[in-house]
Amino acid sequence: MDAHLDQPGFVTLTSYREYPPEEMLSRSRQFAAEMQRRRTVRQFSDRPVSRAVIEACIETAGTAPSGAHQQPWHFEVISDPDIKRAIRRAAETAEVEFYATAPSEWLAALAPLGTDDNKPYLEAAPYLIAIFSERYGVRPDGSRQTHYYVMESVGIATGFLIAALHHAGLATLTHTPSPMGFLNQVLERPSNERAVMLLVVGYPASDVTVPDLKRKPLSAIAKFR
Q1: ∠ CA(165), CA(169), CA(171), 5° rounding?
Q2: What is the pLDDT of residues 174-206, one digit of tens each?
Q3: Are 202 and 188 in contact (CB under 8 A)?
Q4: What is the DSSP string of 165-196?
Q5: What is the CA radius of gyration of the chain?
């Protein structure tokens, strides 16, 4: 037995499962194929979604690794129509300014996606999930606790969340209005948190369309040495 297992705070790993090589390949291929089906959408149905599904997906996000296991994330789940309306108004105000001042190169890159400052999906979709990073922690005595690798940790958790929602049969849109400080105000989040992303969640509209885009092949995104 390794010496470190006798130290306080360590337990024997019992949850790991090993699969035969053939099953490993099959599982990895199946998951890759499922994720290839994932598409970002901008047209959502107002069909209700079970809160239990959203809860399970956020639990999945919470399993992500984080710097020093500080879990520096917070997920604010919004279904209230009035709050969604307030978020839409604030987001569209920010987007109007963005489109008026953004560099032409950035606007040209966005053009094929058909985006503009009109964001009806922020009210149509049954759920918005505002993702916040905790820039630092607050101890019970009010003192600050330094957090490490915050953005990396929150980014991984967000990826887990998107994958879980897709696996559950829902569509998502990663919305990043700039600036996003209004989310702290609308949702009354503390000053140690910073809004990272607004995730729109629900069923795609029956007449949804998506850009005809192609993902880079494996050879373009990975090199094996």
Answers
A1: 65
A2: 999 888 999 999 999 999 999 999 999 999 999
A3: no
A4: HHHHT-EEEEE--SS-THHHHHHT--TTEEEE
A5: 20
